[in-house]
Structures are given as C-alpha cells and as structure tokens.
Amino acid sequence: MAKLTDGKKTVDIFAESEQEEIVNKVAQYSVQSGNAISDHTQRESIEWTMTGLIQGKDHNEINNKWAQLMDWQFRGVILSWRGAIYRDDFLIESMTKDYDEGGFKNAIKVNIKFKGVTTVQSSFVRVQHVGPITPPSPPDLWVTVVAGNTYWGWWKQYGTPIQTLRNWNKWPDRRIPIGARARVK
C-alpha cells in the first residue's frame, strides 16, 4: 500500500506498478574533442508514473479520494509519495481513471503521472522606508539687500517665485530697504 500526502491529508493507493524516468536534455550540436560534455546537457524534471487501485468501502468513499487527488492537481499542491519509490516535492501532472471490464465494486483503477519540482529560497528583500518620505527642503538662504536688488532679480538668480519672495519679506516692490536681511531661498 502506497501513501500520497500533502502533510495534512493522505490518500492510500494500492500501487500495482511504479515507473521512474530521469531524463537529461543533450545538446544537438557537435562537441569538440577534449571538452567537457557536462556543459552540453541539462537535467530535466524527474517524472514517474503509478498504476494502481484506489480502494474504499463503497463508491462514495472512492470518489472522495479521487476528488482529493483532483483538488491537489488543480491547486498545484506539493506532495510526498511513499511506495516502492520514495519521493518528496512533486506535483500531479496527469491522472486517468479506468473502468476496465466494467470496474470494481470497491475500487477504481488509476494511472497517475508525477513530476518533480525544485523549490528555492528567494533572496527578495522587501523595501522599507527608513527616512522621511518627502525629501528634506534645503536650508533657508538669506542675503543682505544692496542697492538695485529687486524681487524680479532674486527670482532670476535663485529661482524662487516672486510671490513667495513677497510673502517671506513683506516689503512693497519699490521699497526694499537697503542693508536689511532678505530671505531669497
């Protein structure tokens, strides 16, 4: 009796035969004499098939076990198999239910194809904001007013809008006092 499990639920299957296939994809181009062959091959996923019976006291119990297999296949649940072959980390690739000679009263014949999967640990690190979200504003810039200074001149030199300069300094356009300190940025 073999066991198929996701770690929480288990389906017992009477395995009549199990067949494992391990395939390497081999390059179709020439390999220069003396070079390593290993860089011209690629390991494919391990596959195996199982033919057996799902048994139960009645057809309802058998159908519940079959429904569990379909659920695992549909959701892509990683499973473990304990039969003649012991495997972890695989998915159900395909399943066939067979009613040979009209079927059995307390069992159905199944053929299941499994495919091994490799899981890896991701090095993804979630970004966390550790500082202010808005960039800090530059420090205030002040100048001493000299003859000829105007809001328009400061706007051209420092890029601060004229209305902002008026709001900060509170002087009329034609009466900016010479020698006073004016905020320009």
Any overview of this molecule?
A hairpin with a 3-residue loop joins strand 6 and strand 7. The mean pLDDT is 85. The longest helix is centred in the middle third of the chain and has 17 residues. This protein has a six-stranded antiparallel β-barrel. The protein is α+β, with helices and mostly antiparallel strands and 185 residues long.
Q: Helix- and strand-based class?
A: alpha+beta
Q: Which stretches of 5+ consecutive residues score pLDDT under 50? A: none
Straight-line distance between termini: 82 Å
Q: Main beta sheet: strand number and arrangement?
A: 6 strands, antiparallel, barrel
Overall form: elongated
Helix/strand order, N-terminal first: EEEEEHEEEEHHE
Content of β-strand: 25-35%
Could you report the average pLDDT, rounded to the nearest whole number?
Answer: 85
Number of β-strand runs: 10
Q: What's the total helix number?
A: 3
Instruction: Give the helix level as a range of percent.
Output: 10-25%
- Please tell me how large the radius of gyration is: 38 Å
How would you write the strand order of the largest sheet? 1-2-5-8-7-6
Q: Would you summarize the structure shown here?
A:
The protein is of the alpha+beta class. The protein has three helices and ten strands, in the order βββββαββββααβ. The protein has helices at 59-75, 151-158, 162-169, and strands at residues 2-5, 10-21, 24-26, 41-43, 47-55, 79-82, 86-98, 107-116, 142-144, 181-183.
